[in-house]
Amino acid sequence: MKTLQAPDAVVMIRPHHFCSNPETRDDNAFQTLSNHTATATSEAARGEFDIAVKVLRKAGVRVHVFDDTGKTTPDSVFPNNWFSTHTGGHVAIYPMFAPNRRLERRTDVIEMLKRDYRVQDVIDYSGLEQDGLALEGTGAMVLDHIGRIAYAVQSNRADPVLLERFCTHFNYEPIAFEARDAQGRDVYHTNVLMGIGTDYAQICLDMIVDAHRRATVAQRLEESGRQVIDLTHAQIGEFAGNAIELTGDRRVLALSSRALRCLRPEQLAVIEKTAQPLPLDIPTIETAGGSVRCMLAGIHLTRRTERSL
């Protein structure tokens, strides 16, 4: 059953010149370098991508695929950072921190959304890059679409003024907090440490620096009726927080094979009450510092072939 939290369609960008982005390496502790040549790395990433699309479609998820053949956008496989969609026909376009990530925005994706789905308005924040502001979509924010809360780690990827502006426009309550990994490094994107499903949320509460803020986040998640799966630092390092609930033939939790392997039986049991884990094998793509959640831009819009909500 489709819920506000679990979209039944996604946008994905097939990479043709994938690599670990040198412009984002300074503040993304999850990035690593491939041991292969640039050509081999790119081919491996594209192969992982194509298999992931097949797995998602077999599970009943609608996947809109766009090719990126350019050589200047190594992170284009992660479209969730530059746009998001929202019930009621709303679309947001975001300002990006790294200059080469700003080149990922493309009009054909937005035009497809307008053609195939009911889009009422598009709010474009990208011009604020000229003021040094960034808010990198559903990487910088993890959205509770049901409870209307935007959780956001404080970083150069999530400007607080722009976060407030987004929340005012889209009717979310902002909850911002500092987060660091076990080595004391700032977390660059909120969606690496937490994900919110319909009936559960996975999060590493221990990464939230301030104890009061940590308690607030846990309380708000519990008040929403969700069971909280408290992840460890090590599990976050395996991308266990970077997952997204989708609706296919049944509700699924799309995550990487690496992330699934690190989950404990009792954690999986919570997920499996209402969703089937759907692992995608993407080890090459994960060298760029993002995982399955980053690859999938959920479509929370009404299809034109469906009755309007």
Automatic annotation (TrEMBL):
UniProt-listed InterPro entries: Amdntrnsf_FN0238
Pfam families associated with the record: DDAH_eukar
Superkingdom to which the source organism belongs: Bacteria
NCBIfam families: citrull_CtlX
Protein known as: Amidinotransferase
Organism: Shimia thalassica
Top-level taxonomy: Bacteria, Pseudomonadati, Pseudomonadota, Alphaproteobacteria, Rhodobacterales
